[in-house]
Amino acid sequence: MGATGLLKFIKAIGDVGERAYDSSKGLLDQFNASNVPSIGDAPLSGAPMPANIPQRGLLNIGPNPDAEAAAIDYAQQSGIPYSPISQLNPVDAEFGALAAREYELMPHDPTNPFVADSYAQMKKELIGQYEAMLRQGIKPEFDTNPYPTSPYDALVDLIENKRLKVFPTNAGYGSADQAIDISQNPLLEVSPYMISGQPATYNDLFRAVHDFQGHSKSGAGFRAAGEDNAYLSHAGTMRGPARRALASETRGQNSLLNFGPDGSINRSAGIEDTIFADQKVGNLPNYITEKGTPELYARQKRFDDLRADNNTGLEGAIDDSGNLRIVHYSSRSIERIDPNRYGEAASGRTISERNRSTHPDFVNRSFFGIEGDDVVTPYRKENMLGNKKYETKIDAAQVYNVNTDPDGLWRAAEGDPTKAERNIYDAGYSGYHLTNKQIGKVAAIFDPLDVTKKLMIPLGGTGFAAFVGDKVMEENKKGLMDGPI
What we know:
By secondary structure, the protein is an alpha+beta fold. It is built from 15 helices and 16 strands. The strands form six sheets. A four-stranded mixed beta sheet has the order 10-14-13-12, with helices on one face. The chain has a three-stranded mixed beta sheet with strand order 1-3-2, sandwiched between helices. A three-stranded antiparallel beta sheet has the order 8-11-16, with no helix packed on it.
């Protein structure tokens, strides 16, 4: 098929972006891309280009240099490191389904101090990023029917005209039949800015900034893969609490839309037929927030290098996919190990533990042992724990090694274990592990995890008190814990 035939073939598909790209990728690989007009910088590897835009035809839309300049400008102004993505990833349906389920399970919890902090930080960063966008000459304006032909027209408009049409929040927000109370959503507060002469909410700023820093900066599309790549692009401008709010507002909602109960309909639906996710204010697990980010790739590379040298501290408990196998003991039957139940069992049996859990920096966690015949100093169950044994797993690179403290997160807390744990959590880790001389290898995990196996219970136990965070420094002083803290 020649170039003209290929153009007719792609146009006949009758769609834009990822669907046109996926259906014709084999042919596009053989096509001379120089015959297709281009705007912006060179498309990133994996970009679903050319886009087939009604009334325009095929067009290669690359990253917007204005958005890149704004991201660098904001990083310099805020001191937040900028970590751009270097490629666009294909659809990961398995992870999308997992993220969709976590968003469904995530409570609407705007008064939770950690949730409130994440949204407060996001609002602060939206202000800075909106200002950086304006400094690049971008002109946002409200429009109740923006870019009706194709969402890719927004990316073209930004590059060609430095203009961005924004659907106003007061014209539509969330699903039509949403029953949950969203009155406490911080993004619905009025911001200090006006758009088209009207007061703009923080959610209006977010819609503008996300199209700019998420889609336009990367050239990401607007279907399942594009939305997740847009999240990763925007996440590279945020850290800590703000990134968790961003993940809930983008990756969580979009995953439910594309991979939740209505996903099979939504993935091919037009905007008028799409069933949107309910709006919720909450925080997803860190392993959902961090998946695919440059920070996680760096952690995985570091872990793989240590693994090649048998120097992870977790030898004997890692599967072929790099997941850490961990066990949890309970007195009740469970299918999901939830850190928000902290304090209900052994973790809350002392006054000091209960007092520490009231600290504003305290991160809820579940405790696990790291067992296995090949594990050096494997966990030895304490007698006070229940007799039901459960196994689960998590990406080992997401579990911080306190004994070696590679990022200095524990040392930065200067002896305060509660602050150290908050540092680890805000850095995006799912938890941490260490070796305790009395009970062996243990882990504290901040994310909820589904049980993967129910196991036989070994007899006996050490009788040593349950490992809890407020004993870490004390035990280290007594020489009970290996490694520097």
